[in-house]
Design a protein that fits this description.
- The chain is an all-alpha fold.
- Helices cover 42% and strands 2% of the residues.
- The chain has 7 helices and 2 strands; from the N terminus they run αβαβααααα.
- Helix 2 (38-45) links the parallel strand 1 and strand 2.
- The radius of gyration is 18 Å and the shape is elongated.
- One of its GO terms (biological process) is carbohydrate metabolic process.
- It holds the Pfam family PG_binding_1.
């Protein structure tokens, strides 16, 4: 993964999958690496929809991030918004079992059938290009890195694990 751009290539995604991990990304760059002034942080971060991941740098004193959030958070909380760190969400909503076998392009079997059924595909048990494309689309719509690999977290969000 290239941290500066949050780009992950297929090698990085495969390495994470082999370790039983999945990659997640963000939907909104709330502060452009702590370079936005407070007003822009307010505008950018407040475009989030439910479930979006907003990346921001609260650990940069003197930047506009903390003042930008300080302006908007009380009003958003009053409107019912809830704020969580990524570790709170993943820890609270995912506990992927170690029994899930990570599958990807070329895999065959019952796990592939389960994925295909969730994605409303022909359930032939062969994880081919159509299944891979559908998995990537599913991952992208669920704010996960669309790598086309069904590891424990993707399987969990699909209701398979």
């Amino acid at each position: 993964m290239r941290v500066g751009t949050c780009f992950t290539d297929d090698v990085g995604a495969r390495a994470a999958a082999l370790m039983g991990q999945e990659l997640v990304s963000f939907a909104i760059n709330g502060d452009a690496g702590s370079t936005y002034p407070a007003g822009t942080v307010c505008t950018e971060a407040c475009t989030a929809s439910p479930g979006d991941i907003v990346i921001s740098h609260m650990n940069r004193p003197g930047g506009g991030t903390a003042p930008g959030y300080a302006r908007k958070v009380p009003a958003l909380k009053a409107r019912g918004y809830k704020f969580r760190t990524l570790s709170q969400v993943i820890g609270a909503t995912t506990s992927p079992p170690t029994s899930w076998v990570t599958i990807e392009y070329g895999s065959q079997g019952a796990e592939a059938v389960g994925v295909q059924r969730v994605l409303h595909l022909t359930a032939d048990g062969i994880f081919g290009p159509i299944t891979q494309a559908a998995v990537k689309a599913y991952q992208g719509s669920h704010h996960s890195v669309p790598d086309g690999i069904v590891g424990p977290l993707t399987a969990h969000t699909m209701g398979l694990a």
